[in-house]
Amino acid sequence: MTTISYSAKIPNNVNIDSDTRLQRALEKWQPNFMKWWMEAGPEEFQNDLIYLRTAVSADSSGWAHFDHVKMPDYRWGIFLADPVPGRTIGFGDFLGRPVWQEVPGEFRNQLRRIIVTQGDTEPASVEQQRLLGRTAPSLYDLRNLFQVNVEEGRHLWAMVYLLHSYFGRDGREEAEALLERRSGDPDKPRILGAFNQPIEDWLSFYMFTMFTDRDGKFQLLALAESGFDPLSRTTRFMLTEEAHHMFVGETGVQRVVRRSAELTEQDPNGDARAQGGIDLPAIQKYLNLWFSLSLDLFGGEISNNAADYFAAGLKGRAKEEQYEDHVALSGAYPMEIVEGDRIAPKDVPLRNAMNEIVRDSYVEDCQRAVDKWNRAIADAGPGFRLTLPSRKFHRHIGLYAGAFFDPEGNLLTEEEWTRRRDGWLPSASDFAYVGSLMQPVHEPGKIAQWIAPPRQGINRQPFDFGYVRREV
Ligand SMILES: [Fe+2]
Ligand SMILES: [Fe+2]
Question: What is the model's pTM?
Answer without folding.
Answer: 0.96
